[in-house]
Amino acid sequence: MSEYIPRLAEIVDIDIESPNTYLISLKLLDNENFSYKPGQFVMVSVFGLGECPISITSSPTRKTLQLCIRRAGKITNGIVDCRVGDVLGIRGPYGNGFPLERMKKNIIIAGGGSGFATLRSLVNYIVDRRGAFGDVAVAYGARTRQDLYFMQEYKSWQQAGIDVGITVDIGDESWKGDVGLVTALIDKFRLSAGSAAICGPPVMINAVAKKLMDKGFDHSDIYVSMERHMKCGVGKCEHCMIGPYHACQDGPVFSYDKVKSVL
Ligand code: FES
């Protein structure tokens, strides 16, 4: 099948993650296998509106393909305005994903804002393959408590022996946890140097990477998922260039040493 022809996927569930963000569960109607890695993305089309790249939020170890979609424009609004039973187009998966075969067994996962959606795929992958990993810690920060994604899953991550730190920029009376930067969470973890997976705004990526390097992580073991404007998803349109790299094919995951100069 041409890489430009989308497969049809029915929406089977829609959960609200935050006031403007939804977790959408999909079932591919052709019943063909859909294999992917944490960190990859798909091109999602709303027929009649167009398509846009969306990170895969589910883990390939689980049955249902899930996408976390924030209202951010015409197409994402079109996706979240859909109902259960509606059909979307899916191309992909695209991009490289996290290089699990090269990553060390001790892993820290650090996310800020909506960038955490792609990291949830990796967290649940580790939960489901727990024996293959060592010490794992998750540090996640959002603007407010209402902006935190996947709150119902943190306990299951802790039960799998993962250190979970959550922080918000702005606390209120409903929030009893940390207030402040993701880097402050990292200070609380007992960490031995290993690999890291980071996604979030550039200022946060740089601050977390610096903190990890201070703790002995090598910059080539720190992997960053870069969000870039993508169009074709297959290396043809040049919309997604990061220096000499196509984010859609060479990325979206890069080792920090490759991209730190453009962050
Ligand atoms: S999105 Fe077209 S080249 Fe990367």
Q: Please tally the β strands and state the result.
A: 15
What is the H/E order?
EEEEEHEEHEHEEHEHEEEEH
Low-pLDDT segments, ≥5 res: none
Q: Give Rg in angstroms.
A: 18 Å
Name of the CATH architecture of the largest domain? 3-Layer(aba) Sandwich
Shape: globular
Structural class designation? alpha/beta
* Strands in their spatial order, largest beta sheet: 10-9-8-7-11-12-15
Ligand list: FE2/S2 (inorganic) cluster
User: How would you sum up the major sheet?
Assistant: 7 strands, mixed
Which CATH first-tier class of the largest domain would you pick?
A: Alpha Beta
Write the layout of secondary structure elements.
Elements (H helix, E strand, L loop, with lengths): L6 E12 L2 E8 L12 E6 L3 E6 L9 E6 L3 H7 L6 E8 L12 E6 L3 H13 L7 E7 L11 H6 L3 E6 L9 E2 L2 H7 L6 E5 L2 H13 L7 E4 L15 E2 L2 E2 L6 E3 H4 L4
Bound molecules: FE2/S2 (inorganic) cluster.
